[in-house]
Amino acid sequence: MRVTIEALGAAGDGIARDEAGRPLFVPFALPGEVVEADPGPARGDGRAAALIAVESPSPDRIAPPCPHFGTCGGCAVQHLADASVAAWKAARVAEALSRAGFRDVPVEAAKPSPPNSRRRADFAIRRRPGGITIGFHARGSAEPFDMEVCFVVQPRILALVEPLRAMLASLPALHRAGSAMVNLLDTGPDLWLRTDGPLSPRDRSLLAAFAEAQGIPRIAWSREGTRETPEMAAQLGPVAVTLSGVPVVPAPGAFLQATPQGEAAIVAAVLEGLPRRMPGKPRIIELHAGLGTLTFPLAVRGRVEAYEGAPDAAAALASAAGRAGARVKATRRDLVRQPLLPPELNGAAALVLDPPFAGAAEQAAILARSTIPRVIYVSCNPAALARDLGVFARAPGWRIERAVAVDQFLWSSQVEAVVTLSRGS
């Protein structure tokens, strides 16, 4: 079928129309291009399609740098020029705000994080007759492919792939499937290994030798497919990550912003969203505080009441704040089951929340009805952002002061946003 691509969809696919006028989703096609596509199965309200040929390429089309592009499920738009990626991601945030009821809000497009800057990676592992396969999931599949290069993750993480492959080949605890989460901390790679078999004393010896050979201070382990708390398989030294000058000891697999550049952009946008004038001892409430990525820079501007539901993260934050003498009161609280209520918000100069991917629907509804004067919402999901901010658009007096798009997921379809809401004219 010969079609013209009309737009770029949320997943990075080109969108055209089939003969019945239904959406046709064509991966790797760009707006304005005339392409030959092979229609396939139903997808949502339209059909999926395979790109056969590009007859009239877009001026924004570039050569993808990675040989795995198209096979790897991580990157969606390596074939699109950086400026156009930035514009597309900003437009996605603007569209989410429009769906919420805040129309014609200008969205500042941020520069993408540079190549090879991602400090987190979660590799899938399979034992196969030909050896160990380790890498990211293939596009549209739950199975990994053998990764040879990557232009997204930091080189120190990528350098672990081949040594991991060799070590896992002789690890009895890996029967068929597993995974390896790597966080690159200030102290080096922090590895959380998950296998489908138990660790024997021999396995632990192998992991300890691997940690020493590769300069890995800590290797944690748990059973693949379970929610078991990771146990220490090997610890050769301390682990720490510095957040705005404060050393924090994270748990294995702890959440970090994907890149240092993305973290800095989010922190800057949040601080810019605080009121220009605050009382002498301002009180700032932070929800879903994690390890303290936003907590510690906020504490420079006021007294922070930081709430976090994950026990390990809440404990790490409280400990780090205590050692640093920061103006932070860290509280463990399940914010999904126990959102903050209006009386708890009274007197706060601002509230900052960075919820998980699903958003914070109940908390947003409470905030919109409260008397708090300012809310700074950090979102990694445009759909959740549109839903949660809809309650603010329907409540009297709220307006958006500033919206910033942050792109720390290079060449992917993901985009983050920092939106500052305030009351008044």
How is this structure best described in words?
The protein has 425 residues and is α/β, with parallel strands linked by helices. The protein has three domains: 2-61, Beta Barrel (OB fold (Dihydrolipoamide Acetyltransferase, E2P)), CATH 2.40.50.140; 83-114 and 256-423, 3-Layer(aba) Sandwich (Rossmann fold), CATH 3.40.50.150; 120-237, OB fold (Dihydrolipoamide Acetyltransferase, E2P) (Beta Barrel). The chain has ten helices and 22 strands. The chain has helices at 82-100, 155-158, 161-169, 201-214, 260-273, 295-299, 311-324, 342-345, 361-369, 382-394; strands at residues 2-4, 7-8, 14-17, 23-26, 34-43, 46-56, 108-109, 120-128, 131-135, 177-185, 188-195, 218-223, 231-235, 241-243, 246-248, 283-287, 303-308, 328-332, 350-353, 374-379, 398-406, 416-423. The strands form four sheets. It has an eight-stranded mixed β-sheet with strand order 7-21-22-20-19-16-17-18, with helices on both faces. A six-stranded mixed β-sheet has the order 1-5-6-4-3-2, with no helix packed on it. The longest helix has 19 residues, at 82-100. The chain is flat and about 65 Å long. The model has no long low-confidence stretch (mean pLDDT 96).
Quick take:
Belongs to the class I-like SAM-binding methyltransferase superfamily. RNA M5U methyltransferase family. This protein has ten helices and 22 strands. The chain is an alpha/beta fold and 425 residues long.
